[in-house]
Design brief:
It comes from Paenibacillus ottowii. This is IS1182 family transposase. The chain has 3 domains: about 15-120, no CATH class; about 125-300 and about 380-445, Ribonuclease H-like superfamily/Ribonuclease H (Nucleotidyltransferase, domain 5); about 310-375, no CATH class. The chain has about 450 residues and is of the alpha+beta class. It has helices at about 15-20, 25-35, 40-45, 60-70, 75-85, 85-95, 105-110, 120-135, 170-185, 255-265, 280-290, 350, 355-360, 375-385, 390-395, 400-410, 425-450; strands at about 140-150, 160-165, 200-205, 215, 225-235, 240-245, 270-275, 295, 315, 320-325, 330-335, 340-345, 370-375. The longest helix has 30 residues, at about 425-450. It is built from 17 helices and 13 strands. Helices cover about 40% and strands about 15% of the residues. Strands 1, 4, 5, 6, 7 and 8 form a 6-stranded mixed sheet that branches.
Length: about 450
């Protein structure tokens, strides 16, 4: 006998929303172990105390934002609909079954007005990291950093070409002093002083999202992207820093400043770092050595001109400051240029009769020139770290930490594409995605720890 359930949809029942949410639900764990009380203190100065309409509870507003990132809901309109029908979402926000869900336009309005040009999203991310430190889930001793590309909300074919100035590197002052000292030690006159002039460069600028950068990298998609530079702590793979740049900014540019920020903001005593080959630059190697941080950076393959000896075939004698070629002839120091490279040149009289000349150089005057940076010792120090047993073990952890963090963000939290346009909005997406990843990991770990303890 067939029976219809249509009448049951019109019936009234006395239920408690508390009983309808499973006890092992993720949001129960997040609500139990993450303290959101700091949100009121952070945003209270942004609200008028005695004028205007009553505002939505800021904690509820940010919890709505967190829900969108927890479950990869890209649209705020869709987020409002999901909250209307999802009992766990309502329970997490403190809403009853008949309470009205805050309108989705409230989130966008606050983003455009109240939260514009302030650091509220960075402050929230930092607060979550501080809570993780209080639970002893962040050690701050071993950090792993890398970047991933996030597709901008922009058409790759809609762009203009503009001439922009390339920024002078922040280490130029230190490099100029190093060049001056190096030339003095070799008996060379100091270079004539000149003002640093920024070089112009032609770039593609998107018409729809000018803040994004046109990225061209080997093995990567081409188009307008942002880069999410992320650092994770080795202890429990929690994210300790997030920084967003246009897609055409090199990985190494913001690294040292972001490392110093973590040391100052969280009091990290960093002992070791593991980095990808994109960070293998002389200034970074120098900076890490000066900070007395054990650095492991992946090797970057350089392909010399076909048929010629690679640079490693030339042996450097540090005591005498000379290079020896494969034929055991010496290349002596000539000068140090403004970019910090020493030039070591061979004697053409010896080279023109050398049987290995065709494999050494194609210069018309038969002179071989080998360059060496004034900070090359730092790069060699990093290279020796990478080849050590502890260095190899540390680098193998990269794919278990930073790569997994990026994979979770893209697969589970909708971080493959930018939801909105503009650097501030992408920075918000990046910080909130990292924050909910940390919340989830903290809540699950602390819940498991409590059950075992």
């Amino acid at each position: 006998m067939l029976r219809s359930n249509r009448e049951k949809q019109q019936s009234y029942e006395f239920v408690s929303i508390e009983d309808l949410v499973p006890q092992d639900h993720l949001l129960r764990k997040v609500d139990k172990y993450i303290d959101f009380s700091f949100i009121d203190d952070k945003v209270r100065p942004l609200y008028c105390a005695d004028n205007g309409r009553p505002a939505i509870d800021p904690t509820v507003l940010f919890k709505m934002i967190f829900l969108g990132y927890f479950y990869g809901i890209r649209s705020e309109r869709q987020l409002e609909r999901e909250i209307q029908t999802n009992l766990a979402y309502r329970w997490f926000l403190g809403l009853g079954l008949t309470d009205k869900v805050p309108d989705h336009t409230t989130i966008s309005w606050n983003r455009r007005t109240r939260f514009k040009d302030i650091t509220i999203f960075q402050d929230i991310f930092d607060e979550i990291v501080l809570q993780a430190i209080s639970h002893r889930m962040v050690g701050g001793r071993v950090l792993v950093t890398d970047s991933t590309h996030v597709k901008a909300n922009a058409n790759r074919h809609q762009y203009t070409k503009e001439q922009v100035l390339q920024n002078t590197k922040d280490y130029m002052g230190e490099l100029n002093e190093a060049v001056k000292d190096d030339r003095k030690n070799h008996g060379k006159k100091p270079l004539k002083s000149r003002e640093e002039v920024n070089e112009e460069k032609e770039i593609k600028v998107s018409k729809t999202d000018p803040d994004s950068g046109y990225m061209i990298r080997d093995g990567k998609p081409e188009g307008f992207f942002y880069l999410d530079h992320r650092t994770v702590d080795m202890k429990y793979n929690l994210i300790t820093d997030v920084h967003v740049t246009p897609g055409n900014v090199h990985d190494s540019v913001p690294y040292l400043s972001r490392l110093d920020r973590q040391r100052e903001r969280f009091g990290f005593q960093v002992e070791a770092v593991a980095l990808d080959s994109g960070y293998l630059t002389t200034p970074i190697c120098r900076g890490l050595q000066n900070r007395k941080i054990f650095a492991v950076i992946a090797h970057r393959r350089f392909h010399p001109r076909q048929g010629l000896f690679p640079k490693w075939k030339f042996e450097y004698d540090a005591k005498r400051s000379v290079y020896r070629c494969p034929a055991q002839q010496e290349l002596h120091y000539r000068t140090t240029d403004r970019k910090g490279y020493r030039q070591y040149a061979s004697d053409p009289a010896q080279c023109q009769h050398c049987p290995l000349l065709s494999q050494c150089t194609q210069s018309r005057n038969h002179r071989k020139v080998v360059t060496r940076h004034v900070w090359e010792d730092s790069k060699e120090w990093v290279r020796s770290n990478r080849l050590s047993p502890s260095g190899k073990k540390l680098y193998r952890k990269r794919k278990e930490t930073i790569e997994r963090s990026f994979a979770d963000a893209k697969e589970l939290h909708g971080f493959r594409y930018c939801r909105l346009r503009g650097l501030p909005n992408v920075r918000e997406q990046s910080l909130m995605t990292a924050a909910v990843q940390n919340m989830k990991k903290m809540a699950i770990h602390l819940d498991r720890q409590e059950k075992q303890g």
